Amino acid sequence: xxxxxxxxxxxxxxxxxxxxxxxxxxxxxxxxxxxxxxxxxxxxxxxxxxxxxxxxxxxxxxxxxxxxxxxxxxxxxxxxxxxxxxxxxxxxxxxxxxxxxxxxxxxxxxxxxxxxxxxxxxxxxxxxxxxxxxxxxxxxxxxxxxxxxxxxxxxxxxxxxxxxxxxxxxxxxxxxxxxxxxxxxxxxxxxxxxxxx
Length: 197
Prior knowledge:
The chain is mainly alpha-helical. It has ten helices and four strands.
């Protein structure tokens, strides 16, 4: 999209696109990103400054490094934008964020949980050993070389199931799409760390 096309993008279109996202934190971040790159005019200080500051805080929430004061700041910024923005666009943007920030899923991010599994910092892809047939399809499709193990050969035994090297995995989801046995699943990273996985 060109800069001119972004400027012409309507707030209604951004709302429609944002509503496709399940996670309220991701939804709010997407909305504010699109608002900043498109319909925001930047003529009034509360809207322009508030939008940029809200984006910084929302990135912290989605990135897994936010604290309770970040959510409190987003609420304060949004309330100020509703009160002081000169145009409807700024007020609607603030209202969109406020409509989602009080949800349980949003506040769970502070404790390291994204129940919708859309925030990459909060999830891990793992292979369930009991379901893995060591067919190697996931190994072939992984562009990041994050899957370790050796394909099963019919005349040999003693293979260990494949594993996913978490530091290499970019969580693209290609392995899940091709696994014929459903052995690859998305789990909450914090819960897995508690059990040492």
